[in-house]
Amino acid sequence: MKNTLRNVFHSPRFLVGFIIFMIILLTTLIYPYVISRDPLVSLGKGFLEPGTYVSVYDANNAGTYRVTLPEAQINRLESALSIEDRETMIAYLKAKGDDVSMLDTSNEKLDDLLAAWKNGYDEADAKKSKYEGFSTQAKRNALRRLNTRVSSDKSSAAMTVTKGDGDSAVTEKIDDISYVKVDEVANVATLPLGTDNFGRDTLTELVHATGVSLIIGLMAGTIATLLGLLVGLLAGYVGGILDDILMFIANIFTVIPGFVLLILIYYSLGPEARGITTCAVVIGITSWVWTARSVRSQVISLRNRDHVNLSKLSGHSLFRIILTDILPYIASYVVMAFILQVSSGILAEAQLSLLGLGPKTTTTPTLGLMMNWAKLFGAYTSSNAWWAYFPVILVIALISFSLNLMNTGLDQVFNPTLRD
Amino acid sequence: MTKGMRKYFKKKIFWFVITLVAAVILNFILPRLMPGDPVNAIVGKNVSPGATPEQIQEQIAFYKHQFGLDKNIFGQFWDFIKNAVSGTFGVSYNQYPRLVSDIIGAGIWWTVALQLPAILVGWLLGNLLGALAAYKRSFWDKALMPVSLFFSAIPAFGAAVILLVIFAVTLGVAPVNGAYDPGMIPGFNWKFISSVIAHYQLPFWSIVLISIGGQAVGMRSMSIYELNADYVKYARFLGVKDKKIVRYVFRNAMLPQVTGLAMSIGSMVGGALVAETIFSYPGLGMSMYAAINSSDYPVISACTLIITIMVLLASFLLDIIYAFIDPRVKAAQFD
After folding, report:
1. Which are the contacts of B303, defined by CB distance < 8 A and separation ≥ 6?
2. Among A153, A230, B248, B322, which is most exposed with the fewest C-beta within 10 angstroms?
3. CATH: 1.10.760.10, 1.10.3720.10, 1.10.287.1080, 3.40.50.300. Which one for A2-44+197-418?
């Protein structure tokens, strides 16, 4: 036993898979203690991009410091001039006939672009000449506004804000070297993965969903493996009419695709009964067949071995023979089957939920439900919110990848012919 | 035909019929165990706001009669069988009074035209790659194995979504959804056909990519298993040429892959669900998705029945074909 375990953990594939899986598992266990936010509480309206959100109200009320950053001016220009603005500038210079081969829209080249613009743009010239692409009045007005933005010297323009209300309102000037310290602002929200369509913190939701999906996968995998093991052992060892009946049931389950059965069973349960547990149970009882089949065929080849016959002659009970003389021989196979069942259970939940057949719950997210919401609310078409679906796909892929790796690692340890 | 062969075929046909009956019964019973009355839902949706309770009752009775739900369970089963045999599958609940066969007929050709070529192309490419990886077993295989393991771990819907986002949304080189431009009238002209081809690309390649991964991994391990088999070693000792051995090996490794091909053609409609829902492709999978989300049992029932019968037929035909092409089955059954 100890030897086997050592062999297993010496297999690099198993080890890598195991580490990835444990990282995911530990994250789902530890994360709630670090960030205790309710995963389903809404933080805003609709998709928010990933990033750090600083409360403007609180920033205005925080103490100010004077900091003179040398690059402050260029930073402001960088954020004021969008990529489209820069493209327009280059297009105008090109239409005018200037050399633009050295210019592009990156932040590094912004200095060059500004210099070229100051050199090339002339208000009077732009007003009368009609370069290609900029011949309409509206286009020329847009250019003039762009030029004002580029050339205005922001350092001299202080901002005025009014604090308080009614009579007690005070007007305050804010110049461009006033800073607040982020730690001193009362409300700063860091959303590494933004928010989903309901305005929920996607990262927190994702971690909770991963936990729930792992539970579903483990439950479904356990049910499927135990059922398959039971049916396979009974059919293979007892044989006879019991074997015929059990294999008939297995045949029906094979021929009617699992997905169809899932849909039909799910439907007959009705939407109210569809919780996390039901979901796992339904997936479990529709996916035991192939485990049962392989266990059965292995048991058949084992049941006439000498040590089993000896046990029989000694008058050991059926239960004891199966437990001590048969199970140890198929244990490695059963572990591998279990790992695959867990992986396919998680996938099955995700696919069911994507089709709108997932758990009907408003209290717990699952990976499949997150995909379903992303689809329903257009995260990958109209809103283009990659953070709402891509991390989910990545987590599902990582979970099945780690489980598959563990499985091939075990396969190499237990089936020496497959070793490279 | 020998006696053993006849016995084998009789046994297979017997099991085919028994499983078919069981599948049909399951298909009939399971949706009817569903709590809640579908007719109430339809009436609730269609009834005018000022209707009196009598009028509502009348409506319910009317729909119950239309769908044959006023009969007892055996009468309903008889109707179910009659509808299935005649091929109409009854009336849709959600798109009343449209026939279910009409809904299915509209979708099935899109599904077949999308899935069949995609499955075949994916199967061919996947097997070629898998066989190559097994035969070369060099650095290339070792480096590619973890990568392909990772890619085959990406779920089908994930791959479809990623393709959709990259090519349709970000790059804009392919249409986002549908099977043709919604502003067009289907017809046999170049404009319509080119629109169909443009819409075809993404769903097609998403299915091909997924099946390449699965087939390649399967073919590789099958080939490695066969390459290590005793008969290969024996043939090597005898000095049989490598080319000839490889032919034997891949022919044996192909057999399970042929099963895989037949089964994926059989379960085409079920497999279409994911790709079709992501790309809103108007095939049978999409009709099923719509039916699932609107509780349209006759349509769900018909779709699941079609899937089951196709899979059953595929596995039955496989059993028959195997009897001729696989010497092992031949030896076991036809003694």
Report:
1. B104, B269, B284, B287, B288, B291
2. A153
3. 1.10.3720.10
